[in-house]
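Final report, closing paragraph on structural work. Over the funding period we assembled a curated collection of sequence-structure pairs, and we close with a single example.
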Amino acid sequence: MTEEIAAKIARRIRVEGPLTVAAYMAMALHDPDGGYYATRDPIGARGDFTTAPEISQIFGELIGLWCVELWRRMGQPDPVILAELGPGRGVLMSDALRAASIVPEFRRAVRIQLAEASPKLRVEQEKRLGDAGPEWITRVEDLPDGPMLLIANEFLDALPIRQFVRGNREWSERRVGLDIDGDLAFVDGPESTASALLVPASLRASTPGTLVEICPAAIALAAWLGARLRRWPGAALFIDYGNSFSAPGPTLQAVFRHRPVGALAMPGDADLSAHVDFAAFAEAAGRGGAEIHGPVAQGLFLARLGAWRRLAALAARAAPGQRIALEAGLARLMKPGEMGELFKVIALVSPGLPPPPGFERDCRYGATDQHPSDDHPRSS
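Its predicted structure, as stored:
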């Protein structure tokens, strides 16, 4: 598939000129004929990466109970939308609903909405969640009005980014063009004041050669959610990898069969992602009207929700082999050297709601910074 989508991208470049990195990512990931998500199920041992819900059932169970508690704090609205952005194979939602079933009133009130663009993954979600009566949407803006709880795990990292490079006087946008052999290659556009205005203000005075990434789609989503949460009661929980504060440096990366590859090497066959700028996301959501809690490290968040207690309960009735697997899976999600620190959790809530579970002992937005890591964040 790489040659087919690469040729399609090259033809577009020859007609339009070099593409923004965002336009390249959109084609490589979502082209209906050869895009990565249009043609495959990328998750698991036979795919290219593994996500937290696939590693441990405790992850989804705790998020399900988190939703129940938020619903109670919202006044137990009936109906309430339970939405997930990028549900993968439906594992997170399945585990969340199983845990939440201990509160039958919540389960009866829930109306499930799944935002999924991949036809392949929709099939998997239907297999796992069909009995729960979900409805599918393509765009988050298609969510119906009303009280809502929204969850998104490793969704923001896959949104297309743009890259800007500081020149001697101004900033220029890095694009994807063609080299002398006709292969895809990064090229820098002309320096301009317009490019500088798109760079976060805190980074505009960077030294020449500095590269900065922005994610317009994440900013637009945050602003939309902020306005919605001001209008309707609810909360949105995002779990992803990235930085608490805006930081320079390239983070665009590709992975194929659990191994990193060049970002331009395998369009359509490799997953593309970038670290999330939680500061920019939080600022946009706050301007829209939401109150922001976090980000906090994933390991700390799960511990506060009772992850170790849940592990003890499961391990007490598990066979020795199962117990080892349960312990290893949760450790992978929580240890600082693995996913426990690189992954962060942020909550957007309607004004007036108390701090959500997992965030009670933190001030609102403003956690410890973490700079880009050389480690690939997609779990292998």
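The first helix runs from residue 2 to 16. Residues 2-38+162-213 form one domain. We thank the funder for supporting this effort.
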